[in-house]
Write the structure tokens for this entry.
Amino acid sequence: MKLTPRLRDELKKPLGRLVGGVDSVPKGRITITVGDIASETLVKSGYNPKLCIYDAKTSRKDIKVDPVLASYGVREVRVKNPAGFLVPGVFGEIRRLLSMEGGSRMFVEGEEDLTTLAAIMEAPDGALWSTASLARAWSWSRSAGILRLRYVK
């Protein structure tokens, strides 16, 4: 599936209910992080995300993955997902990781941005999401993900 110009515009709009910064993210709920900085910050702040999705990039520049993130959880899987695309196999990997005990990491070779949509679809309603900025941690629903996926071809 390829990112369309319409989806690019849609993804710029806030989605879900804003929780706030890292200090206001409730603990005890399934939490999924997408992005290196968001994942690293939540883990370092004492959260135990169910899934951290990252790609060793920030603002399209390669970065060194922090050892705290690199060693988080009990398993890591690697997937390939080119920039501007959402590879269908990502859905199954996310579903599998979310069904397992403990926290997991998904390292994306390519770009992890659109994997957020797959994670929304596979996670239970009420899961918390933290993406590019921890000032934007959201509680999203599957219906919101479906709304965004309709713009992916």
In short: The first helix runs from residue 5 to 11. The chain has six helices and nine strands. Residues 5-149 form one domain. The two ends are 5 Å apart (CA to CA).
